[in-house]
Structures are given as structure tokens and as C-alpha cells.
Amino acid sequence: MRTEQLQCFQAIYTHRSFSKAADSIYISQSALSKQIRSLENELGVTLFKRFHSATVPTEVGLAIAPHVERILSELDLMEDICRTGSARRASCLKIATFFNVSYSPVAVNMIQFEQQIPGFHIETLECSHAQMNSTFFKNAQIEICFGFSELWDIPAEYSFYPLQTTPLSLVVNVRHPLARYNSIRLSEIRNEYFCFSKEDSALFDYYISSCQSAGFSPLLTNSTVRLGLIKQYIASNLRCTLNPMIVAQEFFTSSRFKVIEVTDAKPLTLTMIAINPSAHSHGKAFVNAMVDAFAPNHGA
Q1: Beta-bridge partner residues of 161
Q2: pLDDT tens, 184-227?
Q3: Chain-centre distance for alpha carbon 77
Q4: 187 and 105 within one domain
Q5: Were both Cys, which of 49, 108, 142, 288 would link to 96 (CB 3.0–4.6 Å)?
Q6: What is the average per-residue pLDDT within 219-240?
Q7: Which residues are in the HTH lysR-type domain (predicted)?
Q8: Displacement of CA 187 from its chain's centroid (Å)
Q9: How many domains does the chain fold into?
Q10: Per-residue pLDDT averaged across 116-137, rounded?
């Protein structure tokens, strides 16, 4: 029994199609069929039944699938340890995220993935989109990045996965006159007093350019503050702010705040970039898990 045979089995089991399976592992369909026939002859069983519209695993195929997955996973882990010379490297996935990722669906799904794998952990670096552009995209120190694709210059050699489209939102105190609205246009808030976080310059510039596209420059304080202090200003009804909806809904949860959708601003796309997932034994599995977790939300 050879590794190539198991990889072919897993590809067919995943895609339920010989043609799609062959494409996924970059071999011809005839070569894939040859590998599966060889494996079936060696085991003395039939693993798949081919129909006109689909390929279906047999009872034996279903039974051995989890074992094949574990064998290939262990082989990947062994190769990773040998390649890096470090068992710690094999147990740690390095991920860069935008600031305040904890107030987004990304954090929940990262934690759930880590909980499923004993001895494995994720090292997370919260940073600006500019830092990802200037550092991580160039030297591949990070395996995975999360951010908003409109704020990146994504290198052509990296795979990227749009996860969820999010509108811009306005956050105000519930006593503010605008709190009676569920949606609003930027042109209707031109006279408001804003406070934007400057820790991510690309996101800050996005807020400014969104307002300018609506025909005005926002009235801003010069404070260099983070979201926590902005929250206190809004709680006192002294300021309002703009934020991606997926962050605002998780951060401004108190009954003192009203999160309002901004309908005429360009939305942002929460995106995952796989810089070097193959370098880690769990990298590909993490990418697939995140895509699956967000699948119902993309474009929502």
C-alpha cells in the first residue's frame, strides 16, 4: 500500500467525482483510476461505485475513510517535523489578523478548530493591514492572514478565500436622534462628530474616503485612540464612529449603543489568505474548516 494510493482514495472520497478528484491532486483521470484499481486489488475489495451523476463509496470505502485521513495526517505531521527539525513547529499554526479580530466570527471558528486537536495551538498576531502588506506577504513568516481584501495588495502567488461581505456601520448612543434608524446614508451624517481608531491606517483611510465619496470630510477629533476608548465616548453620547458591521455588532453589544447599517458605502470583504498552509500539518485542514464555517455567510 502506497501513500499515492491513499491520497487518490481521499481525493475521490472528498469530491465524489473521479474528474474533480484528479484535478484536485494534479494528476490525470486515467492515472487516478489506475491507483484506485491497484489499491482495490491489493485489499481485495471494491471501494467506490461509479454512477452517471456521481461516485459513491461502498460500505468498505466508508469504513476505511477515517483511517485513511488519520494516516495521511500523521504522514504530513512527520514530514513537517523532519522538515523543520522542530516538534513545536508541527504543533503551532501562525496566523495574522486585523485588529479587534476577537469581535468577529473569525475568533470563534479559530478557537473551535484548536479545541479539536490535542497538543495543537494557534499563535495569533493582531496587526494592521499595512503590516501584513509590507511584511508578512513578502517574507512568508505567517501561514494564514485574515483581513479585508479591499485594504490589501494580495500577491498573485497566494491563494485567497472571500469569507463574508460586511457593510459599513454607524455606531451611536441610543439617545442620539439617529438611533431611531436601522439604516442610513453617509450624506445624512455629514454634521456628526466622529472618532475613528488610527491603529490600522488602511481602515482609517477607508472611513475617510467613504465619507469623502459621499461629498464631505468627517468632523474628527485628533485623538489617537483604540476602540475601547471610542466605546466610552459613544456611551457618553459625545461621539459616533464607523466600523465594519461584523465587528460593531460583536463589540457594541450594550443596550446603550445602536449599530446602524450604512447603505451607500463600499462594503468590505472579510478574506483569508493562505500564504504557506502546506508548511504546516494542519494548515490545509484549517483553511478548509474556515471556508466551510463561513460558506453560508458569503455575500450575506
Answers
A1: 272
A2: 999 999 999 999 988 888 999 999 999 999 999 999 876 667 88
A3: 23
A4: no
A5: 142
A6: 86
A7: 1-58
A8: 32
A9: 3
A10: 84
Q: What is the distance between the alpha carbons of residues 29 and 10, in angstroms, rounded to a whole number?
A: 14
- Read off the C-alpha cell for 174: 441610543
More confident call, 85 vs 207: 207
Please, where are the H alpha helices in the chain?
A: 3-15, 18-24, 29-43, 59-84, 87-90, 105-115, 129-131, 137-139, 201-213, 227-235, 245-251, 283-294
Same domain, yes or no: 253 and 173? yes
CA angle at residue 114 from 108 to 115, to 5 degrees?
90
Query: Could you tell me which of 203, 270, 214 has the C-alpha nearest to residue 241?
Result: 203
Q: How far is CA 157 from CA 72, 151, 276, in A?
A: 26, 18, 10
Residues 260 and 143 in one domain: no
Find the helix or strand (DSSP H, E) in which 271 lies: strand 268-274
In degrees and rounded to multiples of 5, residue 260 shows phi and psi of -120, 130
Tell me the residue range of the domain where 22 lies.
Answer: 3-84
| Residues 173, 156 share a domain | no
Q: List the CATH number of the domain containing 24.
A: 1.10.10.10
Residues 257 and 273 in one domain: no
Residue percentage of the chain with pLDDT more than 70: 90
Residues 253 and 130 reside in one and the same domain: no
Q: How confident is the model at residue 258 (pLDDT cuts 50, 70, 90)?
A: very high
CATH number at 286 reads 3.40.190.10
Considering the domain architecture, whether residues 210 and 289 belong to the same structural domain is answered as no
Mean pLDDT, range 251-273, rounded to an integer:
96
Q: Return phi, psi of residue 33, to 5°.
A: -60, -40
Q: Where among 84, 106, 126 does a domain terminate?
A: 84
- What's the pLDDT band for 74 if we cut at 50, 70, 90? confident
What's the pTM value of the predicted model, to 2 decimals? 0.67
Residues 122 and 247 reside in one and the same domain:
no
pLDDT digits (tens, 9 = 90+) for 160-188: 999 999 999 999 999 999 999 999 999 99
Q: Are 170 and 258 in contact (CB under 8 A)?
A: no
Strands of 27-77, DSSP E: 48-50, 55-57
